[in-house]
């Protein structure tokens, strides 16, 4: 997911001095008190500025609070004054900004990356600290741990978002019209027609941010890998495949959505799309449950579900996409590695993590996450338990970037279907040349 950049600086500085005894912590300022006569003198606190890069601006309020709690804890436990510079660009250009920083030796201490799509290349480039021996690792669910594990067995990030997704639908509208989520493209067309007959707009469209229209690609490729072409990604990695093989699967559903959606799609971003969906301006939205918190902030009573997107008339191709996306990594070149590692471990702190993840509306990723799952998670799990799911296909980030731009241009009538697909083939081949 990629969005337009806007950096946000958040400086949080603990001001309280701690008095009392404590052991020396590695290179930290000594925690043992010194005495002069009857006066106890507290040691001077060590000061650290920690830079974080997390492209999730809609969660700024939650991260600000959690970081403030961490700052206070680090002061109390280790007598370290931590200032945090938190940059939260939208995702459209975040990946490119981060790559530029890393390549120019201006790496944030902690940064968010996509587990499936970005860990392999970032690890190969030497940007990721090995976190295998960190305390949080033993708390990860067995089903989640592989998503942040490299081919040679190292754990290099802490997973935050695990996803089971397809598209979102308004349960009340479906129930009122006597509808159930369709299992084929033909059934989806019938659902669309019944909604239109009842003066309901079938889809919310929000293409201002290029990462949103590109969502149709992992859903489509996943569907075809599951049902018809299990070797598609492997063939593309060997320059032996082509997106032309996916033409009908991609554009039959994408065209149906575009022809039956809200207006001015290229002027509507994710947050506005969430507000429109929450207000019932469209019954379905090509989007994932990572927008749950934003939707419910607009309409706390909103009853929505998650369903797999049909791309053709083969029910076996109608599957839930399962993935781990946003994950926190520590820069291998960080000069504040100790504090950076402390924060990453604090994300799965035994006392604090449940409230944090629940506020974000994220799925549990740890054995210590004890909060109840959400209704939309249960919706997706019904399909998963029936075998109607697929692991998120490993599509190069550069290809996803090109997909988003290409589909924006296609929607605007500036590119043909073949133009988009040829551009994707070209970008994937370029990726292969660099990453052989």
TrEMBL record:
Point out the signal peptide segment: 1-19
Q: Which UniProt keywords apply?
A: Signal, Transport
Q: Which organism is it from?
A: Paenibacillus wynnii
**What family is it from?**
Belongs to the bacterial solute-binding protein 1 family.
Tell me the protein's name.
Answer: Sugar ABC transporter substrate-binding protein
| InterPro entries named in the record | Bact_solute-bd_prot1, SBP
Q: Name one Pfam family in it.
A: SBP_bac_1
Q: Which PANTHER family match?
A: ARABINOSE-BINDING PROTEIN-RELATED (PTHR43649), OSMOPROTECTIVE COMPOUNDS-BINDING PROTEIN GGTB (PTHR43649:SF29)
- Identify the domain of life: Bacteria
* Cell wall biogenesis/degradation found in the keyword field: no
């Amino acid at each position: 997911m990629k969005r337009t950049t806007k950096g946000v600086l958040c400086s949080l500085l603990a001001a309280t001095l701690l008095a009392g005894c404590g052991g020396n912590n590695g290179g930290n300022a000594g925690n043992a008190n010194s005495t002069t006569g009857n006066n106890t003198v507290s040691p001077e606190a060590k000061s650290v500025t920690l830079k974080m890069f997390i492209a999730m601006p809609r969660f700024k309020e939650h991260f600000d609070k959690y970081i403030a709690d961490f700052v206070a804890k680090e002061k109390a436990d280790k007598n370290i004054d931590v200032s945090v510079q938190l940059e939260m660009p939208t995702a459209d250009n975040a990946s490119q900004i981060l790559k530029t920083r890393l390549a120019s030796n201006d790496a944030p201490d902690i940064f968010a990356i996509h587990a499936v799509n970005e860990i392999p290349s970032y690890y190969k480039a030497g940007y990721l600290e090995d976190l295998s021996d960190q305390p949080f690792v033993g708390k990860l669910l067995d089903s989640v741990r592989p998503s942040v594990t490299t081919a040679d067995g190292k754990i290099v990030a802490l997973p935050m978002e695990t996803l089971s997704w397809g598209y979102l639908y308004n349960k009340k509208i479906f129930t009122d019209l006597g509808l159930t989520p369709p299992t084929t493209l033909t059934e989806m067309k019938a659902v669309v027609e019944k909604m239109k007959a009842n003066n309901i707009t079938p889809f919310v469209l929000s293409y201002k941010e290029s990462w949103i229209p590109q969502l149709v690609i992992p859903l489509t490729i996943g569907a075809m890998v599951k049902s018809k072409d299990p070797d598609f990604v492997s063939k593309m990695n060997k320059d032996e495949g082509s997106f032309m093989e996916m033409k009908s699967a991609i554009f039959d559903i994408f065209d149906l959505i575009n022809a039956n959606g809200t207006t001015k799609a290229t002027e509507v971003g994710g947050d506005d799309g969430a507000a429109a969906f929450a207000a019932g301006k469209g019954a379905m939205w090509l989007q994932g449950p990572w927008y749950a918190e934003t939707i419910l902030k607009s309409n706390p009573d909103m009853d929505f579900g998650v369903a797999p997107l049909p791309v053709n008339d083969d029910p076996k191709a109608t599957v839930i996409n399962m993935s781990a996306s946003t994950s926190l990594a520590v820069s291998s070149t960080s000069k504040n590695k100790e504090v950076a590692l402390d924060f990453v471990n604090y994300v799965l702190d035994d006392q604090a993590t449940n409230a944090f993840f629940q506020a974000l509306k994220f799925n549990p990723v740890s054995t210590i996450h004890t909060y109840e799952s959400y209704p939309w998670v249960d919706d997706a799990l019904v399909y998963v338990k029936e075998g109607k799911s697929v692991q998120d296909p490993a599509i190069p980030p550069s290809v996803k970037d090109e997909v988003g731009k290409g589909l924006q241009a296609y929607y605007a009538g500036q590119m043909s279907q073949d133009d988009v697909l040829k551009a994707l083939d070209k970008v994937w081949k370029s990726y292969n040349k660099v990453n052989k």
